[in-house]
Amino acid sequence: MSRFFATLALLTFAATAVVIVAAVMRRFRPDAALAALLDDVAPLALWLGWVVAMVTTLGSLYYSLVAHFEPCELCWYQRICMYPLSVILFIAMLRRDRAIWRYTLPLTAIGTVIAIYHTQLQAFPNQAHFCSKTADCTARWVWEFGFVSLPLMDLAALLFISAMLLLTRSIESDELDWDDLEASTADPRHEEVV
């Protein structure tokens, strides 16, 4: 299972990189084919974010309840940031709530900072840390491909979800601009200049 989850994490990192490159391309070369990818992915952004949040949550529960890995303090903080996302994103997906980024991006940002710290702590375990010895933050329960750890898997998920939230934000911005344009042209005080 660890190899499977590690592979998913690497694919998630790759997908996040593609979305970031596509966003940059869209900004500087809007006619590029890669930029058009965002238009295709954008309507699915909430759904994709929810799938990743749910798989991450279920994977975390698998490691605790089935594999019996004892989560450390940093693992719990990352879970506090991830678990609500699987519920909140599902509700937002059902309601088509594109404003969700406003209240979920802080969760992903906090979780990302914790996951980055925890990832480097497991990569370089010979440093001072505050975790207890019973649930040591440097313990590598998973170390696939020589570098993929549990916190790195969480980091991949959080970055992908953040990218999907930002993509949802861009859709909301586009819709707001369109609504503003329609409102200004529907205004009877608006005079057409010929």
List keywords for this structure.
mainly alpha, Bromodomain-like
Give your account of this protein's structure:
There is one protein chain. The protein is an all-alpha fold. The chain has a single domain, classed as Up-down Bundle (Bromodomain-like), CATH 1.20.1550. It starts with a helix and ends in an 8-residue tail after the last helix. About 5% of the residues have low confidence.
Which stretches of 5+ consecutive residues score pLDDT under 50? 176-185
Would you list the SSEs in sequence order as H and E?
HHHHHH
Q: Classify the secondary structure makeup into a structural class.
A: mainly alpha
Q: Remind me, CATH topology? A: Bromodomain-like
Helix content: over 70%
Shape: globular
The separation of the N and C termini measures 67 Å
Backbone CA Rg: 20 Å
- List how many beta strands DSSP finds: 0
Integer average pLDDT: 86
- The CATH class label is Mainly Alpha
Short description:
With 194 residues, the chain is mainly alpha-helical. Helix content is 73%, strand content 0%.
Strand-helix topology:
Layout lengths: L1 H27 L4 H9 L3 H22 L6 H23 L5 H23 L26 H37 L8
Helix pairs in contact: 1-2, 1-6, 3-4, 3-6, 4-5, 5-6
